[in-house]
Amino acid sequence: xxxxxxxxxxxxxxxxxxxxxxxxxxxxxxxxxxxxxxxxxxxxxxxxxxxxxxxxxxxxxxxxxxxxxxxxxxxxxxxxxxxxxxxxxxxxxxxxxxxxxxxxxxxxxxxxxxxxxxxxxxxxxxxxxxxxxxxxxxxxxxxxxxxxxxxxxxxxxxxxxxxxxxxxxxxxxxxxxxxxxxxxxxxxxxxxxxxxxxxxxxxxxxxxxxxxxxxxxxxxxxxxxxxxxxxxxxxxxxxxxxxxxxxxxxxxxxxxxxxxxxxxxxxxxxxxxxxxxxxxxxxxxxxxxxxxxxxxxxxxxxxxxxxxxxxxxxxxxxxxxxxxxxxxxxxx
Amino acid sequence: xxxxxxxxxxxxxxxxxxxxxxxxxxxxxxxxxxxxxxxxxxxxxxxxxxxxxxxxxxxxxxxxxxxxxxxxxxxxxxxxxxxxxxxxxxxxxxxxxxxxxxxxxxxxxxxxxxxxxxxxxxxxxxxxxxxxxxxxxxxxxxxxxxxxxxxxxxxxxxxxxxxxxxxxxxxxx
Lengths: 332, 173
Fold this sequence. Notes:
- The structure holds 2 protein chains of 2 kinds.
- Chain A is mostly helical.
- Chain A has helices at 3-38, 54-63, 75-92, 119-140, 144-175, 180-185, 190-210, 222-225, 235-260, 273-297, 303-331, and strands at 99-104, 107-111.
- Chain A is globular, with a radius of gyration of 20 Å.
């Protein structure tokens, strides 16, 4: 057992978790500000300069709220659900390379927690299991609105996992490897890059649905289901669901950065690792802004539209794209 | 190290599978099943079979149990209640017989023939070796299984999809 290796990995894990939680906290602020501007409002502006203390105020408020467990709830599952959500959301980030390797204390330290050879599949798996948090929350609350929200979540997740998986398979087919590092560094001729970017709008749309972001935020749908699966949750337990949603969003954006836009690569990034991390964060942030832009621009779909959109449009498109990729890979 | 991990995951997998049959609440059973699947996946990981582990997570833990939960919530039978009391004795005897049969088969398999190398042979369960095997040695069974799945899916849809006479919107004269 190599104890220094264990130590390095532990430090990296703590670093990533802190970064993700900080990212979550300030993403909520950015979202409120940006959406506010879209709607010709100012957004939060009270707590500190530029409302920079707003996330802290929110966190303090959430933590000190009274813990309420509804009497109809299945207690164990009710408490377990937010933990499952956050736990798997955090662990999905483990395979994302967020910077070039750094040389510290005479060792080469890759800025990636685990470079497993099935990295892409690992992210799919963590996303799939993280869904249980939402489903169980809806079921265990003992509330019909929550249950409906949970059922919508299941149907939506299962439907959109298919086109997502097929797009991922196409990317893997084009790159010839399953590791995120490999997909990021693969050398493509320009037409393969163009072909790859053809998939980006579709993949982005599917990821909107997978992360339950507007206009696909059916698990809540507050005008029909109060607040969907999280109706009966308050205080820090509600905040955990919120956290999981944002961390999923950040991970999805980070994966898109790695797969479609070269991850941390950029001018001089290999020489200065910090610059690489900066490029990575910048690219991820731009994609996150896309998420917000979509939320401010589109109304929510109807539920039947959601289903037919996945099965009748996204799935055929993804299959055609997969076939096209296969043809390109073989012929070119 | 591997032995300790094996004991932990194996114990939790056993807890999961016992929980499936012992809990009175169907949703709890499904959750124990999920625990069992996850622990099986981790056992694959201990063997070094990353691809097998992740496909276990995606297919069984991620998709199949979600569908179970969906159906349970759809028909709303959270607790078994008296639903099983009819013919329970017959079912118990039959089940015991089958379980014995299955256990004997398993014991034979473990005792006489060792299928798996004990400590992951190089490339065991890795995506390259699985893919190569599927598309060379086991190509025909692989394609047959996919046809079988397709037939099962079409059959299920054909059985479940009732064609209702189109409701006439206009009031009858």
